[in-house]
Amino acid sequence: MYCLNQSLFNIFNTILGSNPSFQSEVHSGKLTKKDFYIGLQNKCLNEYDLYDKNVSHNYEIIGLELAENFQKTEELIDKILTFNEFALPYELITLEKIRQKLKTYGINEKRVNLHKLTTFNGQIVYPPVSNLYYLYVNI
Prior knowledge:
Elements: H1 2-16, H2 20-28, H3 33-40, E1 43-44, E2 60-61, H4 63-82, H5 89-103, H6 109-113, E3 118-120, E4 123-125
Parallel strand pairs: 1-2
Antiparallel strand pairs: 3-4
Helix pairs in contact: 1-2, 1-4, 4-5
């Protein structure tokens, strides 16, 4: 469980940065959805999300690091669940909820490295928003 705590901290640290004020809020449990919303505003999955030259210079690419942290966290949850006889029911439910939140958007190495262009009438169509703010509720 300690390793899981550290793994979740790594996810939060990837999103919020290594700002000491955020780190103390993570450890104290005082983070809010708004903190994650703000933290994800200038983050994107990969270099293909840097198509908008008006904002791309403000974006930080975190997709691969985030995918690795998600995978490590899921592996730790699987490991903990193999010893479920030593866990309380509410702990098992909480672990499963965390796993489902991590899997909601399928952030993994394959998706991060995927470069899928959509065309419509011969023109490339990009998503209107390329940052990762949509993850904030699940995070």
